Amino acid sequence: MPGASGLDAARRIHENDKGIRIIMLTQHTEWGYARAAFAAGASAYVVKNAAASELRRAIFLVLSGRSYISPSMERRNVSFAGAQRGAAGLSGKDLTLRQTGVLKMIASGMTAKEISGMLQISVKTVEYHKAQIMKKLELRTTAELAVYAFQRGLVY
Fold first, then answer.
1. What is the pLDDT of residue 91?
2. 6-74 adopts what CATH topology?
3. What's the confidence (pLDDT) of residue 98?
4. Which of 12, 14, 29, 108 shows the smallest number of beta carbons within 10 Å?
5. What is the CATH number of domain 80-151?
6. What is the pTM of this model?
């Protein structure tokens, strides 16, 4: 894009209409770019060398009000212990270790069913944790949770 970056365009689009869902399709695999994309208003971050099915999944998730990040980026996530250290003291709204883990998984695009299978808890328990996280952090949408996690370095 001559004269503007994708981040600039996303920022301008998001400022004009917060309801527009933005999917960043990029060659950048550095976490700084992903965090900047979500901060600019993106709902998904897909690397260009991803399979077409990955882009379809991102579109589906974003249209259903969720966020997405390429699995190749997910593999660089911090450990739960590291995420807990990052979550401590967030404006006086401390998250438990389990809540931090659930937040991190949500931010990486996992469904409640996928999270429940990984943590060996019920889907209802995952949804309860998500509701408690949203209440503590005063957030309303899954995209806001993802942005929150990326801005605080809970997902790398």
1. 39
2. Rossmann fold (3.40.50)
3. 85
4. 12
5. 1.10.10.10
6. 0.51
